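The following record pairs a protein chain with its ligand, KG4.
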Amino acid sequence: MTGQPYSPRLILGLESSCDETSVALLEDGVRPLVNLVSSQVALHEKYGGVVPEVACRRHMEVLNPLLSEAFSAAGRSLSDVDAIAVTHGPGLVGAVLLGVAAAKTLAALLDVPLIGVNHLEGHLYSVFLEHTVELPLVCLLVSGGHTLIVRMDAPGRYEVLGSTRDDAAGEAFDKVAKAMGLGYPGGPRVDRLARSGRSSAVAFPRPMLHEGYEFSFSGLKTAVLLHLQSPSRVSDEDLCASFQAAVVDTLVAKTLRAAHASGARTVAVAGGVASNSGLRASMQAACARAGLPLVYPSPGLCTDNAAMIARAGWELARLGVRSPLTLDARPSLPLVSRV
Ligand code: KG4
Ligand code: ZN
């Protein structure tokens, strides 16, 4: 629903689409007064992945205390809030629903606009919290649930250039780590081991490296699992370095191809996997060669957080976007332009 543009001074952002509950207060669209994240990683570790039912219950337990903590840390009260931005998809349906229900209740109670934000849109806007970004922007969005390349021409105008046909990049990291017995979440552990390994130790496939913007990681994951059973198994360090290099080569090649083809003025990487040291180094080198500015959110803004949702909400308010109080949780919400 779009109408008159408005410019809320203080936006309350809520995020609960997966295993992080987060509450943020953003002032004037630029200053996160507070961005609290309650992570459930330890809770899900023993299951080797996120258990949706467990995630919902934890969101329910922590959301209210987190709200109180956020207001007291920022020195503000509920009555200071001018608009509420909430993730309404994609994500785990029960988890998203909980945040949406809280946001709708507060919006009705305070009589302020409600803004439903696409979680992926939030990750895109995480880049803008700390950087001045020249558009068009080409953003590689890599997390445990998503891998896509998005072009942004103007605020609220997005084009998904490519996405994954199967596993997300972070999911591939997590599955490989699980098979190696490294625990959950696997990405940071694989990254750490890869630093002292040889990336040329095993020549893993780089699917569709020379064409298009689509990704596929399940073949690579299977190749690693097969290698784990082979008699010529290399060390954990070499295995991690070789696997990581295959993922990184594909991510970097396709992002740069998309940036060239769409005349990007800025390249960005967002989402949990953006913290990967191999990806950072390789993307930095490729962008420097191409003369393209590269921006990264700092690690706390790469993973799921509500400041990015509030930032997206602020941009959407300026485009006149408001959601009705019937806003629903959409587990498979696609990323589409708002204008
Ligand atoms: O964005 P995020 O916090 O949650 C989702 O929306 O999925 O991303 C979490 C994902 C996990 O798959 C985790 O293994 C991966 O990001 N990750 C990494 C690294 N740090 C986190 N993957 C590779 N290298 C890292 N350093
Ligand atoms: Zn995310």
